[in-house]
Amino acid sequence: MKVISVKQLVAATLGAVAIGAAPACELVIAEGEGEGEGEGEDPCLPASVLSANFTITGDCDVELPNGVDIQAGARLTIEPGAVLRFASGQHLGVRTDGVLVAAGTEADPISLRGTAAGWGGVDVESGSADNALAFVSILDAGDEAPLFGRAAAINVRDGGRLGAQDVSITGSRGAGLSLFSGAQAEQPLEDRGLSANF
After folding, report:
1. Are residues 13 and 31 in contact, defined by beta-carbon separation less than 8 angstroms?
2. Threshold 0.90, pTM exceeds
3. Which residues are within 8 A (CB) of 8 and not within 5 positions of it... i.e. 6 or more apart?
4. Hey, where are the domains in the chain?
5. Are 195 and 35 a contacting pair, CB within 8 Å?
């Protein structure tokens, strides 16, 4: 496993890391585990505005034409092996006080991809310490946006916090990762790789 620093990651993503004025954003690199409570009739299809806990099971390969916004108090758990396909321009958003736990395994990673190139990627506003990506592949994310002309595959916004381990970002139309508002990493970033990102 290759270990790179956030400084090296910034260079690898062509310097497209945005830093705002308020030092309220933090990127924490650590292993993440979590549990969610499955709700609803279809274990593969959460609501596009998720206001209750939901678990996407590992046997799911699902298209999300309207994306998913995890609202305050809700938790989305994505189990190992799940494949989520987002329509162009749609994203996986974690709003203030929402929680995202996508914990794959080396043998059974999670895949977040578009139905076509240019889905909106992962957008984190929540400052929850439970937000985590582990063994996740993000493919063909990053969509048109005013910042540097493209949005990143992963955007950690003002006040946002995200733990990440063994995350690969491939084919992003923008930067692989954008950290806003004085984002900092407390540990080296463990990385499966960045490739073919603009």
Report:
1. no
2. no
3. none
4. 2-195
5. no
Rounded average pLDDT per 10-residue block, the chain, 198 residues: 34 35 35 36 87 96 94 97 94 94 97 88 91 94 60 84 90 80 44 49
Spatial contact of 156 and 178, defined as CB atoms under 8 Å apart: yes
CA–CA separation, 39 and 46 (whole Å): 9
Instruction: Quote the tokens at residue 41.
Output: 């009739």
The Cβ of residue 147 has, within 10 Å, a number of other Cβ atoms equal to 14
Residues paired with residue 144 on neighbouring β-strands, in sequence order: 150
- Please name the amino acid found at residue 152: A
Count Cβ neighbours within 10 Å for each residue of 34-56 and write b for 16 or more, e otherwise: bebeeeeeebbebbeebeebbbb
Q: Are 55 and 42 in contact (CB under 8 A)?
A: no
| The two three-digit tokens of residue 122, written as one number | 């992962």
C-alpha to C-alpha distance for 3 and 120, rounded to whole angstroms: 27
- How many CA atoms does the CB half-sphere of 98 hold within 13 Å? 22
